[in-house]
What we know:
The complex is a heterodimer of chains A (576) and B (80). Chain A has 576 residues and is α/β, with parallel strands linked by helices. Chain A is 40% helix and 17% strand. Chain A is globular and about 75 Å long. The interface between A and B is medium-sized, with 17 and 17 residues.
Amino acid sequence: MSIPTFKELKKNIKKDLTSIPTIKVALLGDTATQFLAIAIKGIGIERGYNIELFEADYDQVERQLLDSTSELYSFQADYVVVFQSTHKLLSTFNETDVDKQRNIADDRLEFIKMICNSVQSRLIYFNYPEIEDAVFGSYTNKVKSSFSYQTRKLNYELMNLGQLYPNLFICDIAAIQNKFGRDMMFDSSVYVTTEMVLSIDSIPYVASRTIDIICAAQGKFNKCLILDLDNTVWGGVIGDDGLENIQIGHGLGIGKAFSEFQQWVKKLKNRGVIIAVCSKNNEATAKEPFEKHPDMILRLNDIAVFMANWDNKADNIRKIQSILNIGFDSMVFLDDNPFERNIVRQNVPGVTIPELPEDPGEYLEYLYSLNLFETVSYSDADADRTKQYQVEAQRVTLLKSFTNEDDFLKSLDMVSEVKQFDKFNTPRVSQLSQRSNQFNLRTVRYTEAHIERISNDNNYQNFSFTLSDKFGENGLICVIILEKKDKETLFINTWLMSCRVLKRGMENFTLNTIIEYAQKNGFKKIIGEFIPTPKNIMVENHYQQLGFLPLNATGQNLYVLDIDNYTSKECFITTK
Amino acid sequence: MDNKEILNQVQEIFRDILDEESIIITGDTTANDVEEWDSLTHIQLVVAIEKHFKIKFTSKEIVSWKNVGEMIDNINGKPK
């Protein structure tokens, strides 16, 4: 994989887009954005989305955003992308009285706060790649009214705003300039002839970073990193060279490249990316460095699934997928061997497989350029994810020792805590709505702001469920949002569950909880809906299996359950 | 490289960037003669030509050409 060129992206938009889902995106810029618009559409297609784009006329940022009757608001975008350029900020700065130049960052921040409050959809705001105007030299760092000082302050405060407003996502195009340099980012002849401040080479990267955020918000992001070992995680071949001779560790030489690569992987693991190993080795040999080598950063408890054998890697990746229960399109596979990469690429479509450079010293900088692990949420629970998958592997082993499934479930001593949404669980609830693709009846994605709104709205009733058992905590794994349609009817707006608690009777426990609430509050029936997506086939018959009857007349996948005739379903989960 | 060879290579760039295999250009060709050649694709062509010949035009040069011939003279006049 690599970032396509602008020319390739332009060709993409001639493709037939009728079969892929549409996302409405509005693009507003204070410089010419035609090429960026083409690239955003083109990258969208690469990632499986038809981007229906509203491109505001040139330099209409303020008018479109501040006038509630503007074309922007009638377009009703899912995402509003705002690109206010450093170039134009510099012009404003230059035209401002010297004594007011120190307010440039604050003025802009006030404007951004204003649009955060008026835009209801998700707002993607580009940060500011620096332009050094060399008026003060390095002394600029001591001068509050210098342009560099103001730009850096603006970028710093934008990060703080991003934490304050859940619907604001900063698209870090300054990071692109940090990676490739200003001379790649900006092309003076392109600027002079077209008013575009991005070079043709940088536009695909900027578009890609933008679509990365949109994909992540749509639930499409990488959750798992699968690693080859020899010459990927350490230098050399453990089976041939032996524990003492593999290259790893600081000091002179290539070993430090592998150490730093492992540190990167460790940070991803701590952030909640699942790490798996897929290596052609004897298992004991492959595990030896993880257990015994003093310079290894990664240890066995960092690895959720360890596959070391002599089967082909495509089969092994399928096995990893079946244990983790996540889509192939959320997996990244790193292997130094082009042959292995191709086998996996040809046999397991969907997996992201970067073309690692030949020189291990270049791995990290290359991987940085791909921005493989975009996300739109981060919570403390993410750090425990690897542990949860390891525990899942233990459960699978225990299950094999029982012949009767009920006996197995009883032996787990499962306990669930049922709570309404609150400020502590809101981030996780929102995150689960973004991550869950398979066990998700309607696949409605919620930001933290949406969840807050719902929990304060009397027309809704909500539940969150945790599940723990004798092996450990699974954390918050199920979310229910009920809409009160009328005095008698509850509509299940959202029913989603983490796949790691499948087949534990959690569905029955959840339904019992819903019915208990409904009975106490005088409701007579419950309506559920299944909206099919390419990924949620596993819950196609969810409502029928729970005893709901189809509401045929509508032609939609609607199901109804009569509350008065409900008998509580058997399950082996107790309420905390 | 003579102008004819440069013209052939420029023609390939036009076909590639404008995504139209049938484009034929001569020294007299102007933007009016090629449907896909507008002010925006123009800069795409310029950047592609710069990359291909490893040269850099000045902004003044880019707006000065009246036809393909003048652009090719410009390419040929650049120090290698």
